[in-house]
Amino acid sequence: MSRSLISRSYSMIKSFSGLSQSKLITSRQLPVLRNTVRSYCIKKEPGKGKGPVTFRSLTAIAIGGAGLLGFMWYVKDEKEQALLRERKRQLGKAAIGGEWELVDSDGKPRSSKDFAGKWLLIYFGFTHCPDICPEEMEKMAGVIEDMEKEPNMPPLVPLFITVDPQRDTKEVVAKYVKEFSPKIIGLTGTVDQVKHACKAFREPGKGKGPVTFRSLTAIAIGGAGLLGFMWYVKDEKEQALLRERKRQLGKAAIGGEWELVDSDGKPRSSKDFVGKWLLIYFGFTHCPDICPEEMEKMAGVIEDMGKIINFESIQFSLINLNLLKFSEKEPNVPPLVPLFITVDPQRDTKEVVAKYVKEFSPKIIGLTGTVDQVKHACKAFRVYFSAGPRDDDNDYIVDHTIIMYLVNPEGEFVDYYGQTRNKEQVKSSIMVNMAKYAKLHQKGWFS
What we know:
The chain is of the alpha/beta class. Among the domains are: about 100-200, Glutaredoxin; about 260-315 and about 330-440, Glutaredoxin. Helices cover about 45% and strands about 15% of the residues. It has 12 helices and 14 strands. The protein has helices spanning about 5-15, 30-45, 55-90, 130-150, 170-180, 190-200, 215-250, 290-310, 320-330, 350-360, 370-380, 425-440; strands at about 100-105, 110, 120-125, 155-160, 185-190, 260, 265-270, 275-285, 335-340, 365-370, 385, 400, 405, 415-420. α1 packs parallel to α3 (about 55-90), α4 packs across α12 (about 425-440) and α8 (about 290-310) packs across α12. Residues about 1-25, about 40-50, about 205-210 and about 310-335 have low confidence and may be disordered.
């Protein structure tokens, strides 16, 4: 085969591109090209060996194909770059975002100019939001915490901007953001200031600029599709995570059935609390410091949850409506039932436990039992406990796991809270878990 075949093949490929208006060979045209090359080789250059297509002709086709693919990649890259430039031109410099002036939780004026040169993660919400805002704030706090762990990452400043300035004063906002992370900066202001900030992030520019109605419509449709897909992926991911978490924990890996006795001497079991949320703490009445602190925390959570249920607001989520109905049916029983289970049954009789729990809240149910019953309950929740050496007065300290356990109405373990979690963090987490549970179990229109 002569060298002229390579040039002829290249010329043929080049001329063959005339079959496509875009000057590129499509996948449907490749079989035609292959047959054309084969017939051309048979006619002009009989092959050596068994077939008409020789190694050199295949090499020539490969070289031409590689060049064609390179050109296609170049055109694709140029098209993407052009789309990016056009999108930037259409959106303009301040179509989303812009200058704003607000006040932080210390009463100090803050503006968008104060954060120039820094990355911002901004969330608009309100402190009286029952479920969605706490969930998003938890997410924001988690993002900030994870970002700090990553090496060579630029600093990211989290901002919470209220959309309810009439109720969300700087003091209210200060208390709210601290529940999630001390690094989140809470911002409020006058009604006009907040409206201006919200408009900056919600109203793309109109009129004289390069942004037209048609381009905004295209962006809106594309954005809606993207948001819909992102929501679908997020929902699927959450469902998968919940299924995976449940699989890893197992049906009874943490939690399970137990039987004890309350402070009135009445037998109580895990089955008695099916249909109710439980907040369980394991401790002992002779504990000098840690247990009283945790019991105070539990009592505070229950008290605050009761205030949230009775709070009058136009906006109620499904979970809040359910809790409100529950509190109307049983006004003396909170929607979240607090249980104190002793790990020292030899000293903590029902009378001792009754007196102990009343010191913190009349709503806390104290439970005790035989040594075997208590061991079984502790084992179900993976609670470690061990009595220390006795002193001259026959007194001793019990070393035990310091954790509160959250159990859903189906009797399944949901979450736990260690000693380092404060009351506000525990309360927020419980509300988020309740909202997720309600979302997963709410009935549709046709169910």
